[in-house]
Amino acid sequence: MNKTEEKIRELVKKYFAENNIAALIVKDGRAIITLQNENEDQTKVKELEQQIAALEGINKVNIIFTSERGAPTLGKEPEKWLLKGVKKVIAVASGKGGVGKSTTAVNLALALSKLGKKIALFDADIYGPSIPTMLGYENQPVVSYDGKTFAAFEVHGIKSMSIGTLIDRDAPIIWRGAKAGGALEQLLTQVEWGDIDIMVIDMPPGTGDIQITLAQHLKIDGAVIVSTPQDIALIDAVKGVNMFQKVDIPILGIVENMSYYICPKCGHKEEIFGHAGAKETAEKMGVRFLGEVPLHIDIRTHADAGKPIVEDKPESPQASAYMEIAKKLV
Q1: Closest CA to 227 of 297, 317, 325, 293
Q2: Which one of 136, 226, 244, 305 has the fewest CB atoms closer than 10 angstroms to its CB?
Q3: Pick the CATH number of 3-66 from 3.40.50.10540, 3.30.300.130, 2.40.50.180, 3.40.50.1370
């Protein structure tokens, strides 16, 4: 921790409990403080903001509050979160991690944009946010022009936001589900999205608190389930389908990622994880099979470089696979 961060922490302690400082970031003249389990006292906030802004090298201050949310009252409909300007919401989910869900979400969002839609991509994978890296805005500071709402990042023709922009890259988020849900609500509803045809949400893997919270509080128009052909992945994909169906969210279809590998030297096709398992699973469950995406190094390297393959190599077979899936979604 540098001297500026130490001074900011001392100032925060004058108004709020030290153990409630969830995160403190100072980057490019901006101080972002995340407080947990604190009342949003505007008098304290304004005084604290003024004192922090007076520090050398600080020209912008953002104080964010997160809190534990109580369980919804039985028989009471959960309050819906309002996303101004967003017409449709698609969740991209997986029953387990490691199947390429985030890579699929990014490339599908860009493919939908290339089909003429106004697209937003929201990173709800709060414990492992990767969208800033994949879209290339990882080191850019969050901007607020009015001091009340955040401006969405505009990259490759789409708008985006992620919790990853508000925390240090290597800092773990150790939050219970209710607290994580509160942070997601703030990010979703306090961003100026503008006019959006489709918001793609990159969900966390599995079927836990975050998925349930978003299903309860957002009007999700459909879910895309990502799986590999492996039996173990397909078992979890079935769980994902069943979860969304139980909360009355339509299943738009299943995508088989890492479907096959083609050797770049000899052209031999190898089905490393098996093949067509997702298609067979979709048929058995009565949901649509959206398509196959091959296992290819370019998909990975382009995502790591912040230039997803749909954007950087739109004529490639890999990008074409995402485009065909996007057409089916539209």
Answers
A1: 293
A2: 305
A3: 3.30.300.130
Q: What stretch(es) of the chain map to CATH 3.40.50.300?
A: 86-329
- CA 83/CA 5 separation, integer angstroms: 34
User: Going by DSSP bridges, is the β-strand pair 261-262/251-256 parallel, antiparallel, or unpaired?
Assistant: unpaired
pLDDT bracket for residue 69 (50, 70, 90):
very low
How does pLDDT run across 270-324, given as a tens digit for each residue?
777 766 778 888 888 888 999 999 888 899 999 999 999 999 999 999 999 999 9
Sign of CA dihedral 90, 178, 71, 190: negative
pTM given for the model: 0.75
Pairing of strands 269-270, 261-262: antiparallel
Pairing relationship of beta strands 86-93 and 222-227 according to DSSP bridges = parallel
Tokens, residue 117: 């839609």
Please write the tens of the pLDDT for every residue from 237-279: 888 888 888 888 999 999 998 887 877 777 777 777 766 778 8
Burial class for 169, CB neighbours closer than 10 Å (0-12, 13-18, 19+): exposed
- Measure the CA–CA gap between 133 and 110, rounded to whole angstroms: 15
Q: Where are the beta strands (DSSP E) in the chain?
A: 21-27, 30-36, 60-66, 86-93, 119-123, 150-151, 153-155, 158-162, 191-192, 196-202, 222-227, 251-256, 261-262, 269-270, 289-292
- 21-27/30-36 β-pairing: antiparallel
Task: Dig out the tokens for 259 from the structure.
Answer: 């479907």
